[in-house]
Write a structure and sequence with these properties.
heterodimer; A: 286 residues; 4-stranded antiparallel β-sheet; B: 117 residues; mainly alpha; rod-shaped
Chain lengths: 286, 117
């Protein structure tokens, strides 16, 4: 034992202690100051604010590609879902309906844009490293196709993700198509509240839309209510309790067919008792 | 005596080297991953694009107070100064004339609005 070089062990211990001290200082006491951050690293509430401004800019310019490029900076796995969820949160938190509507409108436009993208069996889909799918249209039939050539990736998309979206031509905003009343059914369910009017609003892709204003009128009265306030029942769901013996008209504020003559029906339960039933209306963009 | 002193020198040197390696690892090789950041940490081009978005919205809304609230997320400066910084960046990096015009209008509006406040 006497011959053991204890001082060497001391050197090793000092090295380890120094390493630990250095890591504690560089990771906890004085980590590198952050600058040049990307929007995807923002706190959730700041991301909401960022998304809200993207929606407001889109509402002003109608420039969907630019809005898409900006949304991609936030790193959401599904921008449409993120916008719809945000619209619901804004309504639930009593924030301006106008701002919530802009977020919902951008979500609807993105959804519609995705659906309108032409798809054919000969279309080449190239997945890039950001999990987005870039669609490359094949050449016209009169152009010979070199089957041995590997499809080339489209670099434009990568550039968009790595730098600030560059200015592009601003198209004129196009209003959405008016909604059609695609369903009207009587609901006789004793478990539901009496006279429940249920409204479901879908886009052309049959996806539910949050934040849509519904106007209900009757002789001498009018009220508004919104989809998305009960997300557990669906983003595009809204309901209203009808008073017996009153006839209502229902339509969407942004333009739709009018459901006329809506009144709470009388239903029979299994044991023969009558109760007030409900109505379910479905509006969908054509 | 000399031998004891040189051993202490080795130990202190080892401590210093350890600290150096630790700092290099924590600052350069594997720095802390950041998330939940505040907007003032954004890169200048993202800030400028945010100012441009605010200017695009302002063009239609014509509400300088709302524009100022949107820019206030950057915190440390006045909305006017934030918009002016964005405009300067846009000019320096070749944003399109139409975008620069929008940002200029926002800067002017916020300057006037700041004077009223």
């Amino acid at each position: 034992m006497r011959g053991f070089p204890w001082w060497r062990l001391g050197v090793l211990l000092a090295l380890l202690v120094g390493l630990g001290l250095g890591l504690v200082y560089s990771w906890m006491i004085s980590p590198l100051r952050v600058f040049d951050a990307e929007p995807k690293t923002l706190r959730a509430d700041f991301k909401d604010q960022y998304r809200s401004v993207i929606a407001a800019a889109y509402a002003a310019t109608g420039n969907l590609p630019r809005a898409q490029a900006r949304l991609s900076l936030l790193g959401d796995s599904d921008s449409v879902e993120a916008l719809n969820a945000q619209a619901q949160r804004m309504l639930a938190n009593d924030q301006s309906f106008e701002q919530a509507d802009k977020a919902a409108a951008l979500a609807a436009a993105l959804d519609e844009g995705n659906q309108d993208r032409p798809v054919s069996s000969s279309t080449v889909e190239i997945a890039d490293n950001t999990e987005n799918v870039v669609t490359a249209t094949p050449p016209p039939p009169d152009v010979p196709i070199d089957l041995t050539e590997t499809p080339q990736t489209i670099e434009t998309h990568t550039i968009v993700n790595e730098s600030t979206p560059r200015p592009t031509h601003t198209p004129t905003p196009v209003p959405g198509k008016p909604f059609k009343l695609t369903g009207q059914e009587t609901v006789c369910d004793a478990n539901l509240p009496d006279g429940l009017l249920q409204v479901v609003v879908l886009n052309s892709n049959r996806r539910q839309i949050a934040g849509v204003e519904i106007v209900i009128t009757w002789d001498g009265g009018k009220e508004q209510f919104f989809t998305g306030l009960k997300p557990e029942l669906g983003n595009g769901y809204a309901d209203y309790t009808m008073t017996p013996d009153i006839t209502y008209s229902v339509q969407l504020a942004r333009g739709s067919d009018i459901a006329l003559g809506i009144t709470a029906p009388t239903c029979q339960s299994s044991n023969g008792e009558s109760f007030l039933g409900g109505i379910k209306l479905t509006f969908q963009q054509p | 005596m000399n031998s004891k002193r040189s051993r202490w020198v080795f130990i202190i040197l080892a401590l210093a080297v350890g600290i150096g390696i630790g700092l290099a690892y924590g600052w350069i090789i594997d720095p802390v991953d950041f998330f939940d950041l505040t907007p003032d940490t954004l890169r200048a081009d993202y800030k400028a694009d945010y100012v441009l978005m605010t200017a695009e919205a302002y063009q239609v809304e014509q509400d300088p107070a709302l524009a100022a609230r949107r820019l206030a997320i950057f915190g440390t400066k006045s909305p006017y100064a934030i918009a002016a910084d964005g405009l300067a960046y846009a000019r320096a990096t070749g944003f399109s004339d139409s975008d620069i015009t929008l940002m200029q209008e926002l800067v002017t509006a916020l300057q006037a609005w700041s004077g009223i406040q």
